[in-house]
Amino acid sequence: MATRTMAVCVMEPPSFCGSGLRATTSAGRSLNDAYANAEIGFHGEAVSTTRILCKAGEESFSLAARDGKVCLVRTDRDDDTQHWIKDMKYSIRVKDEEGYPAMALVNKASGEALKHSLGQSHPVLLTRYNPDTLDESVLWTESRDVGEGYRCIRMVNNIYLNFDALHGDKDHGGVREGTTLILWEWTEGDNQRWKIVAW
Questions:
Q1: Of the four listed, 103, 112, 122, 186, which is most buried by Cβ atoms within 10 Å?
Q2: 39 CA to centre of own chain
């Protein structure tokens, strides 16, 4: 496999990690707790959740965080594990090498963010989300439109690794309940085309 140069543009220095500061609501609860309960966002705004769907599964399947894993499941609006907050806090400061803005994707039920996998063919991970720390490993970008409003979702620091519904293409039987989300290089399959849409 050819070696590719990866670039991330950070417009200003990030805040120091481990400052010990903990943001709270006016009621004294942590923002992480309030966020998981969908009262307010990390930045004090009203939360609106999205769903993440793959062209290979169309409307029938949505991305979920289940038992510490990221997978596609039958779409159910009442299932909070299928609700995601698209946090654009670092979108002005951090871009990928094509200039697309960074985002974090945080699960409403768990408060965990999608985290880069260990490399190609490995499952996308979940990790506790701290909105006050710039952590490149939880930042993603959406590509240009790759047809019918679908886009690639890829690592901010390596746009050559994309969301991929493992064996979700027609040749492997398509998306099914529990299909794992991995990262893979672009192969133009429907299992690599994604939409982030409002519920």
A1: 103
A2: 20
**Tokens encoding 174:** 């398509």
Q: What value does the mean pLDDT take over residues 37-43?
A: 55
Amino acid at 173: G
What pLDDT band is residue 13 in, cutting at 50, 70 and 90?
A: very low
Q: How many helical (H) and strand (E) elements, i.e. helices and strands, does the chain have?
A: 1, 14
Domains of the chain: 25-198 (2.80.10.50)
Q: Is pLDDT of 156 > 60?
A: yes
At 104, is the secondary structure helix, strand, or coil?
strand
* Residue corresponding to tokens 């942590």: 30
Q: Which two tokens stand for residue 124?
A: 């996308």
Greatest pairwise CA separation for the chain in angstroms: 53
Tell me which H or E stretch contains 34: helix 31-36
In the chain, the N- to C-terminal Cα span, in Å, equals: 39
Distance, CA of 69 to CA of 123 (rounded, Å): 8
Please give the model's pTM, rounded to 2 decimal places.
0.80
Cα–Cα distance between 132 and 22 in angstroms, integer?
9
Instruction: Indicate if the alpha-carbon torsion angle 38, 162, 91, 17 is positive or negative.
Output: positive
d(CA 45, CA 181): 29
